[in-house]
Design brief:
By secondary structure, this protein is of the alpha/beta class. The chain is 43% helix and 13% strand. It is built from 25 helices and 20 strands. The strands form five sheets. The chain has a six-stranded parallel sheet with strand order 10-9-11-12-14-13, sandwiched between helices. A five-stranded parallel sheet has the order 1-2-3-7-6, sandwiched between helices. The radius of gyration is 28 Å and the shape is elongated.
């Protein structure tokens, strides 16, 4: 009898906790008069089951390295996550819940990494969180292979995802799920809130495939829970998923959007708007919940949630004990683990990187990048990544390492397949997990497919490195579909993304130094397919590294004591054209300074004094770049003319296309003379 009474009491307490989550979320949205109440109401039982029975976390230390990761891919349902974080004891007081979606609050309209304790990654654009979680699971697997020895699993955690119909409709989730199945990521578990409602109405309007069959075809372990409020069924499904270690798991949970709302349950109107005072009153009356005050939290429910804080602290204590024992047996590994989790670089990691001489044969910057990458990878074992099926062309393979596959989890070379969008989002997940420096490579023209995750990487200051090759019309015969024109400007338009387009092999090595050493932003390296000469600049090794880190520097100047007539500023392969024009213009009576400007963003970070020294105010300035001219004039005061490409390319050898589009010494010099004449007249 006593046992039965305890079971009933536990069941009642679970129900009370679930109702607390539901009404906190509903009150947040109602007070803000903005938000998405439907998913929190429908998925509260699922989230509660996961957090109370399975999720390993410690609110007192949100960054515990071996915590489980929880990704709310359905970021519009963030009121549910904020309620969980508050109730379990994270540093998110009730006042922040009451300021949901308001200026300066830590409860923004979609979860933001770094703003709210316990939020693992920024989500909201559907599908991104799902793919981020694949990256987190990859990172866990890589670190497990590197650091776990014998009886000490110092890295041993799961990645859980709560995903929606919208997440599954987005192509990025399909790409990521396909790769996750191939890689057999057994510690990735996705809970799918199958409520069959989207903004326009029933998902049957546009989404009718067999989702379980689809994920089974991807190589996932699949289950179905027919009642999303059945805590016992949910617990059994998650338990079964955790037993499966050779495949990721997909659990389709049938939920009701807006559960409990008398008039809006199972309707699109419950998705993205407050329920309304009358509807909330009816719902609270139905569930015997106090009408006042708003944001009511029963003491019994709060006590139950706060037990999870104690559980998490105990779990971390056990982990710390194992880590200490492990560190005594494997002291070098322990120091390395501490270093990579902290994001610190090894001492002297950049000593002895490649240096190229002007007497060397011309070399494509993509090839120089591959040499730099491999030299750095030998010193930084946490550097890992790959390409979207283009490693031979992008020179992005770490030659000293194996491939990362289910059979070789210690490999550092990822094969993303032709999945640029997923690659970008997976890199974000690897970066936010910590312990790795991720990179991904493709052609510059395909950066369009990666823009959403690149934007999120910039928003969250993630140290992701992008290798973009075949950077202009100079890539040649593949024609306008593969020749980037507007892409440099498009990347530069993303706030916080640092774009570096080096002019030669040495600038490329210097760009890699910047990329590895700059942990507070994503970096895009933009590289040539065609060979370019090695600059005879006299600035090599750390001198050139500092110059590239400034974004722009004087590469060729006029004799000391003389005043220049103009400045030629160029990026990438066009720097060589500017240098040749510098010589010809000098013979024609014009003294031209040449400035190499590999990075607009790094340039803008410099002091006004330095910028005035490199680009003197009032001096005629001519920009040369094989991309759209839009951006140069408004971005740089005093730009007199731009030799650019304001239309799409053509299929022909690269040298021919460049010449026909005006990138020749004679044409540049004539443009300079014409522009100076207009300026004087």
């Amino acid at each position: 009898v006593d046992k039965r009474a305890k079971i009933v009491t536990t069941h009642q307490l679970d129900e009370l906790c679930v109702k607390t989550l539901r009404f906190l979320a509903a009150d947040m949205v109602e007070q803000a008069q903005s938000g998405h109440p439907g998913l929190p109401l429908g998925s509260a039982a699922m989230a509660y089951t996961l957090w109370s029975r399975f999720l390993r976390f410690n609110p007192r230390d949100p960054h515990w390295p071996d915590r489980d990761r929880f990704v709310l891919s359905a970021g519009h349902g963030c009121a549910l996550l904020y309620a969980l974080l508050h109730l379990t004891g994270f540093d998110l007081p009730m006042e922040e819940l009451k300021r949901f979606r308001q200026w300066g609050s830590r409860t923004p309209g979609h979860p933001e990494y770094g703003k709210t304790p316990g939020v693992e990654v920024t989500t909201g654009p559907l599908g991104q969180g799902f793919a981020n979680a694949v990256g987190m699971a990859i990172a866990e697997t890589m670190l497990t292979a590197r650091f776990n020895h014998g009886a000490y699993p110092v890295v041993n955690h799961h990645t859980y995802v709560l995903a929606s119909d919208g997440d599954l409709m987005e192509g990025v989730a399909s790409e990521a799920a396909s790769l996750a199945g191939h890689l057999k990521l057994g510690k990735l578990i996705v809970l799918y809130a199958d409520n069959r409602i989207s903004i326009e109405g029933s998902t049957s309007l546009a989404f009718s495939e067999n989702r379980l069959g689809r994920f089974a075809a991807y190589g996932w372990h699949v289950q179905q829970v027919k009642n999303g409020n059945d805590i016992h069924a949910l617990e059994a499904a998650i338990t079964a998923a955790r037993v499966i270690t050779d495949r990721p798991s997909f659990i389709a949970v049938h939920t009701h959007i807006g559960f409990g709302s008398p008039h809006k349950q199972d309707t699109a109107s419950a998705h993205g708007a407050p329920l309304g005072e009358d509807e909330i009153r009816l719902m609270k009356e139905h569930f015997d919940w106090p009408l006042e005050p708003r944001f009511h939290v029963p003491e019994e429910a709060l006590a139950q949630f706060r037990l999870l804080q104690e559980r998490g602290a105990s779990e971390q204590t056990y982990w710390e004990s194992d880590r200490i024992a492990w560190s005594l047996d494997y002291p070098e590994d322990a120091l390395e683990f501490q270093r990579v989790i902290a994001g610190n670089l090894p001492d002297d990691w950049d000593v002895g990187l490649p240096v190229f001489a002007a007497s060397d044969a011309p070399i494509a910057t993509r090839v120089a990048s591959g040499k730099a990458l491999n030299a750095i990878a030998g010193r930084i074992p946490e550097l890992a990544g790959g390409s979207a099926d283009l490693a031979p062309s992008t020179h992005s393979r770490i030659e000293s390492s194996a491939d990362f596959e289910a059979a070789s989890p210690g490999g550092r070379n990822l094969h993303f397949g032709v999945r640029e969008h997923a690659m970008g989002a997976i890199l974000n997940g690897m970066a936010v997990h910590r312990g790795l420096i991720p990179y991904g490579a493709t052609f510059l023209v395909f950066s369009d497919y990666m823009r959403p995750p690149m934007r999120l990487a910039a928003m969250n200051h993630l140290p992701v490195i992008y290798i973009f090759t075949h950077d202009s019309i100079g890539m040649g015969e593949d024609g306008p579909t593969h020749q980037p024109v507007e892409h440099l400007l498009a990347l530069r338009a993303i706030p916080g993304l640092i774009v570096i387009r080096p002019a030669d092999a040495n600038e490329t090595v210097a760009a890699w130094r910047v990329a590895i050493g700059h942990s507070g932003a994503p970096i895009a390296l933009v590289l040539t397919r065609q060979r370019v000469p090695v600059l005879d600049s006299g600035l090599i090794n750390h001198g050139l590294a500092n110059s590239v880190a400034h974004g722009a520097y004087v590469l060729a100047d006029i004799p000391t004591g003389e005043a220049p007539d103009l400045t030629l500023v160029a990026t990438g392969s066009e720097v060589h054209l500017a240098l040749a024009a510098h010589v010809q213009l000098l013979g024609e009576g014009l003294r031209a300074r040449v400035v190499s400007m590999p990075s607009w963003q790094l340039w803008q970070e410099q002091t006004p004094t330095y910028r005035a020294q490199v680009l003197p105010p009032g001096l005629a300035c001519f920009a040369v770049e094989a991309g759209v001219s839009l951006g140069w004039r408004p971005y740089f005061d005093g730009v007199t003319d731009v030799l650019g490409v304001d239309h799409f390319g053509a299929s022909a050898p690269g040298e021919t296309v460049m010449r026909e589009y005006g990138f020749s010494v004679d044409n540049l010099c004539q443009r300079v003379h014409d522009a100076l004449s207009r300026r004087r007249g």
